[in-house]
Amino acid sequence: MISMGKQYAKHEKRAMNGAMRLSLAIGFLMLLMKTYAFWLTGSTAILSDAAESVVHVFAVGFAAYSMWLSHQPADKDHTYGHDRIAFFSAGFEGALIIIAAIFILYQSTQKLLCGFELENLDSGMVFVSVATLLNGGLGLFLVKQGRRYSSLVLEADGKHILTDCITSLGVLLALIFTRVTGWIYFDPIIALLIGVNILWTGGRLLYSCFQGLMDRADPELEPQLRAFLKRECENQTMHFHHLRYRDTGNRLMVEVHLLFPFEMPIAKAHELATCLELKMEKAFKKPTELVSHLEPFEGHDEVHNRLLGREG
Prior knowledge:
Helix content: 55-70%
Oligomer: single chain
Low-confidence stretches: 2-6
Largest sheet: 4 strands, mixed
Radius of gyration: 26 Å
């Protein structure tokens, strides 16, 4: 039997879509500010920050589409729904981040080898300071919303923006050190460090995307599922085994075999299984879909061995 589980309410979907639109709008604003700051100063560090904003705009555009698609109901072509697009979104963002990091590393190395000039550092510091504050606030807001609604897309976007905030702080330090000491090579050196950090961030996003698509077991979630099932089964006349689960990004999908006494009527077993499903939906924050398979406890192994041709 299958429980479709609780779904996101309309106001929750509106809140998540609104957060994503806010992220996209601020991303465009940051890109314009950083591009102008680079034009004023010629700073490689600011260029690296602007490249990160280019990634952010493209990534958020795809993430917004991914969020919309992930909330669409299952259809005849996608019988399990569209939730897993969230992992593709995270992978796309990770790939863009890596491309930006390679560009930053190339530009920084070229500046170190060929020489460069810096101008209007005071104006550049003002723009970068404003960008840092805006990104920090936006990133914390998106991570909070992502965890509140168990949205992988929102949380990934928030973490990326917090990384962008750290990048902006590095850029600001580069400009301050250069302004105070007069040694312009602080700029490309810190830009190189920023590029390495962004490369690491992109690699982690790609890794998490791969693990999600491969249905890697969650070492924190599995003990919670087993503890819940053990507690509920002990309160009723049933047992469980063959637990499987997957996190699809927006939903938690659980499969379990429930074993009942042989003499229990199927209607009663069905009622107990349904009660278990309803309790599971309330026990976990993320929307949950439970698939249960009802079996008799007595003679269970013998039936499987005989029908499947196994040794007793």
